[in-house]
């Protein structure tokens, strides 16, 4: 079998065990045959050693791209073969034992044959029960990648982080186990965790699922890998319960004449709840897809992820990561950007499902906290802390997505969010996303685009966006010439190696910083290009404008002062190549 189809799951270990049993079986028959041949020769007869070499059939996975799964029908045939081996090999072992005993030969080969049969029977029983679930999940005969990796071969999957034990305990309603899973998720050291969570959830009974949602909605809603509809259900339940509880507590404290930090924290959470509720109302308007509350954390700066369109069903998914100054109380503005991008991407392609989401799953730097290292815009501390969260979140998008062809996952980083995106991509080399887009970026934590290990890397920068120029800030002349800044190379420079798309200049002066927020302006060239990029419609990108030099004025007979030359128009802060209609790696 082709175990590499489910890298990270239990298939490779199962393949090794299967090969080991096959080799053991072959050697058992060879040892028995050699003993019998030697006995024949001792008695004066003639005999030669037989060969027990046989061919191995191969099972291959269904070829549907990054979110592909496996062929359940082929797996069913394999289980049937194992079951037959489990029935026939013990009988063969008994007969071989009798033959060897009659010749006064060691019975060890017969024991190995019987043992291989016992192993085959155990595997067939376990795999058949798992296949029942897979076939229920996918009537078409194709299971998700997570189900293939951990649903079918879960008993063989390596588990260095102890996630399986935590999942088993969580199924009983043990809250500490759910907390332990979230701790593993925050570290993002196990790229298989979200897939394990997805399979675990699908294997639970409906009553058990309902009990967990009722008991721990805030914990469940934060687990990457759960179906988006389940996360939305759990988070909305938590949101409503928190609003009711906070209002009641505020009324109680107010009646007692209390004041101070406790009151302020409760009011902050109410403001956060209001902002999230208003953002969710953007979904389902004027033909727009409904909104899903994918992540929620109240208090402090707050965290959330809101998706317009279900990413589990989408053909094209874009996750927008905001930058400096972002916090939960102001999430409505970021949600409007994600909703507007959904509108544009959906308008650009009619035969695909689009999901556009805002992901504020990290504590973004705050302008008023510049002197605090944890929240300073001048340091990568917040990005290094947030990148594992983003990497784990995209693991969840892969794990919960249903099989489909030509699925495209894009992560769009704006401002400081581009640094978070760049660092997160290096946490999951080759598995983070199909493409990343950086807009208004001060740097992405890399010297070259190829270091991100993503097929497509795109950069857009408004000419009057001062934040994009931070990538050039360097105390040395050599650094400035090389485009080196505080967060790696400036991604807008040619030597970084990214592809560029056109962003028009607005009429706003640079010092107003309005250009830094212009990428989502309604009907702007930038927004149109972002929609095309999300859908992979590279041939439709609106190109950079070309400028034709003015003709030399014809001299007049009357002498006059020479005309003052007009300044050359500026297309962008730095030279940018035109985007190719069909970029390499597409």
CATH fold description of the domain at 294-540: Rossmann fold
Largest sheet: 8 strands, mixed
Quaternary structure state of the chains depicted: single chain
Widest sheet: strand ordering: 3-4-6-5-7-8-9-12
Q: Under the CATH scheme, which architecture of the domain at 294-540 would be assigned?
A: 3-Layer(aba) Sandwich
**Overall geometry:** elongated
Query: Stretches where pLDDT falls below 50 for ≥5 residues?
Result: 1-7, 59-68, 474-483, 556-586
Category by helix and strand content: alpha/beta
Average pLDDT, to the nearest integer? 83
Number of strand elements: 12
Beta-strand portion reads 5-15%
CATH class categorisation of the domain at 294-540: Alpha Beta
The Cα radius of gyration reads 31 Å
Q: Please tally the helical runs, counting DSSP H or I stretches of 4 or more residues.
A: 16
> Helix and strand succession?
HEHHEHHHHHHHHEEEHEHEHEEHEEEH
Tell me the helix content.
40-55%
Give the CA-CA distance, first to last residue.
30 Å
- CATH superfamily name of the domain at 294-540? Alpha/Beta hydrolase fold, catalytic domain
Could you explain the architecture of this structure?
By secondary structure, the protein is an alpha/beta fold. It has helices at residues 11-42, 72-102, 108-137, 145-152, 163-170, 175-187, 193-203, 206-215, 217-220, 228-255, 261-280, 331-348, 381-400, 416-427, 477-481, 525-534, and strands at residues 70-71, 142-143, 291-297, 303-308, 316-321, 354-360, 408-414, 435-439, 456-460, 484-485, 488-489, 499-500. Among the domains are: 3-155; 294-540, Rossmann fold. 44% of the residues lie in helices and 9% in strands. Helix 1 (11-42) runs antiparallel to helix 3 (108-137) and helix 11 runs parallel beside helix 12 (331-348). The protein starts with 10 loop residues before the first helix and ends in a 52-residue tail after the last helix.
């Amino acid at each position: 079998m082709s175990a590499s189809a489910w890298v990270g799951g239990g298939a490779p270990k199962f393949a090794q065990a299967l090969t080991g049993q096959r080799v053991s079986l072959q050697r058992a028959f060879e040892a028995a045959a050699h003993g019998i041949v030697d006995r024949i020769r001792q008695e004066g007869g003639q005999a030669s050693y037989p060969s027990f070499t046989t061919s191995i059939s191969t099972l291959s996975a269904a070829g549907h791209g990054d979110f592909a799964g496996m062929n359940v029908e082929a797996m069913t045939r394999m289980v049937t073969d194992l079951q037959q081996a489990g029935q026939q090999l013990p009988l063969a072992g008994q007969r071989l034992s009798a033959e060897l005993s009659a010749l006064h030969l060691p019975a060890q080969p017969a024991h190995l044959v019987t043992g291989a049969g016992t192993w085959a029977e155990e595997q067939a029983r376990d795999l058949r029960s798992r296949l029942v679930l897979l076939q229920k999940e996918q009537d078409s005969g194709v299971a998700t990648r997570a189900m293939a990796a951990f649903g079918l071969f879960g008993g063989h999957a390596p588990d260095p982080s102890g996630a399986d034990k935590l999942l088993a305990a969580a199924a009983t309603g043990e809250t500490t186990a759910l907390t332990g899973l979230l701790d593993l998720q925050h570290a993002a050291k196990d790229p298989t965790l979200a897939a394990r969570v997805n399979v675990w959830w699908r294997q639970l009974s409906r009553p058990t699922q309902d009990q967990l949602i009722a008991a721990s909605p805030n914990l469940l809603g934060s687990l990457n890998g759960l179906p988006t509809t389940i996360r939305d259900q759990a988070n909305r339940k938590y949101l409503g319960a928190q609003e009711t509880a906070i209002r009641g507590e505020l009324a109680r404290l107010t009646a007692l004449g209390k004041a101070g930090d406790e009151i302020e924290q409760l009011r902050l959470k109410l403001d956060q709840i209001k902002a999230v509720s208003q953002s969710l109302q953007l979904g389902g308007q004027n033909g727009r897809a409904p909104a899903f509350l994918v992540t929620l954390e109240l208090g402090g700066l707050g965290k959330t992820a809101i998706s317009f369109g279900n990413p589990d069903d989408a053909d094209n998914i874009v996750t927008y990561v905001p930058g400096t100054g972002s916090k939960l109380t102001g999430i409505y503005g970021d949600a409007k950007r994600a909703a507007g991008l959904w509108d544009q991407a959906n308008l650009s392609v009619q035969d695909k499902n689009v999901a556009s989401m805002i992901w504020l799953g990290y504590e973004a730097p705050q302008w008023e906290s510049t002197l605090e290292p944890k929240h300073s815009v001048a340091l990568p501390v917040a990005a290094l802390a947030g990148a594992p969260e983003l990497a784990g979140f995209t693991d969840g998008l892969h794990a919960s997505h249903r099989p489909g062809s030509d699925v495209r996952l894009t992560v769009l980083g704006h401002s400081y969010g581009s640094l978070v995106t760049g660092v997160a991509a290096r946490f999951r080399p080759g598995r983070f996303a199909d493409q990343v887009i950086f807009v208004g970026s001060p740097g992405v934590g890399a010297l070259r685009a190829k270091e991100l290990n993503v097929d497509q890397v795109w950069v857009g920068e408004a000419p009057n966006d001062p934040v994009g120029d931070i990538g050039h800030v360097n105390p040395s002349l050599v650094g400035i010439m090389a485009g080196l800044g505080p967060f790696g190379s400036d991604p807008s420079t040619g030597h970084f190696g990214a592809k560029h798309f056109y962003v028009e200049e607005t009429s706003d002066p640079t010092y107003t910083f309005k250009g830094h927020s212009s990428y989502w302006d309604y009907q702007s060239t930038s927004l149109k290009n972002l929609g095309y990029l999300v859908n992979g419609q590279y041939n439709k990108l609106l190109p950079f404008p070309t400028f034709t030099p003015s003709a030399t004025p014809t001299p007049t007979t009357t002498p006059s002062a020479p005309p003052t030359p007009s300044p050359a128009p500026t297309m962008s802060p730095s030279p940018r190549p035109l985007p190719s209609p069909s970029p390499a790696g597409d």
